[in-house]
Amino acid sequence: MLTPEPAEPNPAVPARPQAPSPPPPTHVSPTPPPTQDTRSVVARYGSMVYGIALTHTNCQADAEDVFQEVFLAYHRRQPRCRSEDHRQAWLIVTTVNCSKAIALSSWRTRVVPMTVEDLGDATPAMFEFETQDQDAIFRAMARIPEDYRTVLHLYYFEDLPVAQIADALGIEVGAVKMRLSRGRGLMRDRLQGALFNE
After folding, report:
1. Dist CA 95 CA 51 (whole Å)
2. Last residue of some domain: 83, 109, 128?
3. What does each of the 198 residues of the chain score in pLDDT, given as a tens digit?
4. CA distance linking residue 170 with residue 78, whole number of Å
5. pTM for this structure?
6. Could you tell me the residue range of the domain that residue 113 belongs to?
7. Is residue 25 part of a domain?
8. DSSP assignments along 37-86, one per residue
């Protein structure tokens, strides 16, 4: 039995178009962490937010107002955060800004804030000092210029490394180190012992 030879292509007949090749897969960026429930964020970062607020305002009532404003803003905006460090940085910056706004408000200027001595047992249970050294540092911080308080609080109370503090505040590592050094110098004479002999 003879096998027929394949027919020669007829140039008058157009060839069937080939299906286009599928496009190469595009790079998919990693999905950012899901927005956390506000309650869980408060549970995790409430002490930090209140501590920064109290450090800046020296006033329990103002610190409580800042606390509410910060987490209300978080609940309303539901910021998409790349990581937990990013979420923490957002809360830190928002807390500092709210604290400054309240401190500069017209109502605030007519009210005498609590003195450092008044803070004693009035500090809410949600913000408790872990050590006597931290208690002494906090009281000394209330007596120094505001520019140095945030970095000192984040370093000594939140145990954040210098690089993370710089990222959170949007400043250079050298600026954080400078503020820590000057802040320690301002507080050294107010504290007993060798807490700042570093």
Report:
1. 10
2. 128
3. 555 555 555 555 455 445 455 444 444 444 445 556 889 999 999 999 999 998 888 888 899 999 999 999 999 888 888 889 899 999 999 999 999 888 777 455 555 554 444 444 434 444 556 677 777 777 788 888 888 989 998 998 889 999 999 999 999 999 999 999 999 888 887 776 545 555
4. 21
5. 0.67
6. 35-128
7. no
8. PHHHHHHHHHHHHHHHHHHHH--HHHHHHHHHHHHHHHHHH----SSHHH
